[in-house]
Amino acid sequence: MADVPADVRIKVSTEGKSYKIRDSKMRKVIETNYLAAESFAESYYVAIRSARSTLASFYMNKTELPDGKSIPSIVLNGAVLNDGTTVQKFFIEEMPFTHYEIQSVDCHVLNPNLKPLQSGRKAEAERNMSLLVTVSGWVRLQEAGKGPTRGFSETFVLLPNEEYSRQKVPKTDKKSWLIQTQNFRYVT
């Protein structure tokens, strides 16, 4: 993905007009979201292509909710998968080589105050949110440069990884955002 300059990342488009966001707090939230979404998408699709044995680490641990439903909620082109380990196994055992060409990444804050803050640290406040990330582009289910491509759209709900935030493990060992919900669809 191309490196987008900060002044472009912080523009909001409304009815064809672009406005620069002057509120520094809002600018920081938008920039944090954009960088998180771009970084997540880049690392996730690289893992699908060349490090499938790491895919489970992109997902939150399976949790049962009080209503009996469980998360993460994962749907890949209509197939419901139980958790990150199942996704990893699916890609290793059933999916051919895949090459993703990402055309767009979009990100929105779903919940700007995910939980009560434990400290007054600025970094904690900046990550105290859930993100809706939408990725679209093309996928090739054969070697790069060979075979047909198909359009895809994929939507994720990401939550901050608390272990990463608390720095209980080396940052290289953990993802900073984890998948709570995922829906992949071919679009062409």
Can you characterise this structure?
With 188 residues, the protein is α+β, with helices and mostly antiparallel strands. The chain contains five helices and ten strands; from the N terminus they run H-E-E-H-E-E-E-E-H-E-H-E-E-H-E. A six-stranded mixed sheet has the order 6-5-10-9-8-7. The longest helix has 27 residues. The radius of gyration is 17 Å and the shape is globular. About 5% of the residues have low confidence.
State the gist of this model.
It is built from five helices and ten strands; from the N terminus they run αββαββββαβαββαβ.
Nearest-integer average pLDDT = 79
Radius of gyration: 17 Å
Q: Could you state the order of secondary-structure elements as H and E?
A: HEEHEEEEHEHEEHE
Task: Let me know the number of strands.
Answer: 10
Structural class: alpha+beta
Largest sheet: 6 strands, mixed
Question: Could you outline the blueprint of secondary structure elements for this entry?
Answer:
Blueprint: H1 6-9, E1 11-14, E2 17-20, H2 24-50, E3 63-64, E4 70-71, E5 73-76, E6 79-81, H3 84-93, E7 99-111, H4 122-126, E8 130-140, E9 149-160, H5 162-165, E10 177-186
Parallel strand pairs: 5-10
Antiparallel strand pairs: 1-2, 3-4, 5-6, 7-8, 8-9, 9-10
Question: Notable features of this structure?
Answer:
single chain, 188 residues, alpha+beta, two-stranded antiparallel ribbon, 5 helices, 27% helix, 35% strand
